[in-house]
Design goal:
heterodimer, A: mainly beta, four-stranded antiparallel sheet, about 0% helix, globular, B: mainly beta, six-stranded mixed sheet, 12 strands, about 50% strand
Chain lengths: ~110, ~120
């Protein structure tokens, strides 16, 4: 039981490049989330998925898209990366009221 | 607007002393409250939560938190700090009327335990 896994762990992009951050959970949870973490700002919700086939915007969705491919996987896509998207990205899944987090993806956009 | 405040960016405590990490919240109705811990270069780990019942909640690694409705606070405590408790601590609140279970997060408090 790996819990929540994320790939890659670290990525460097140039402005304008695109990439997809992958997230998978093996806990059979319905709900999944994407956050970004920036110094001094806590976590901010980008998108979430209440169940397979549904996605909704969070607090900071601009510049991102998501796909809930199946119950296990929830990917985050940056179509045209900007330096403001330099951050650490966390995926989480939820059981009851508790969210369980992956190890994060550290993204640097130059 | 719903919000969570962690008024201290950093808390320094000597090993063996009691520690407190503060959290206050503003949310309509009765909140669901959470504490998470983040060790360096790791994801967040769940520590404890308050939903209803006893105001003193016990969690992982010897931590506990006290819900105080009149002061709208949910401070994290531990009777005797360990060096290994050094980490970043986040308080979060969920509006129980929010069916999407979104959490509002505090900015985090860095806890440093000195030997």
């Amino acid at each position: 039981n790996a819990g929540v896994t994320q790939t890659p762990k670290f990525q460097v992009l140039k402005t304008g490049q695109s990439m997809t951050l992958q997230c998978a959970q093996d806990m059979n949870h319905n709900s999944m989330y994407w956050y970004r973490q920036d110094p001094g700002m806590g976590l901010r919700l980008i998108y979430y998925s209440a169940s397979e086939g549904t996605t909704d915007k969070g607090e900071v969705p601009n510049g991102y898209n998501v796909s809930r491919l199946n119950k296990r996987e929830f990917s985050l896509r940056l179509e045209s990366a900007a330096p403001s998207q330099t951050s650490v990205y966390f995926c989480a899944s939820r059981a009851g009221g508790t969210q369980y987090f992956g190890p994060g993806t550290r993204l640097l956009v130059l | 607007a719903q919000s969570v405040a962690q008024p201290e960016d950093q808390v320094n405590v000597a090993e063996g002393n009691p520690l407190t990490v503060k959290c206050t919240y503003s949310v309509s109705g009765n909140p669901y409250l959470f504490w998470y811990v983040q060790y360096p270069n790791r994801g967040l780990q769940f520590l404890l939560k308050y939903i209803t019942g006893d105001n003193l909640v016990k969690g992982s690694y010897g931590f506990e938190a006290e819900f105080n409705k009149s002061q709208t606070s949910f401070h994290l405590k531990k009777p005797s700090a360990l060096v290994s408790d050094s980490a970043l601590y986040f308080c979060a609140v969920r509006d129980p009327l929010d069916s999407n279970y979104q959490l509002i997060w505090g900015a985090g408090t860095k806890l440093i335990i000195k030997p």
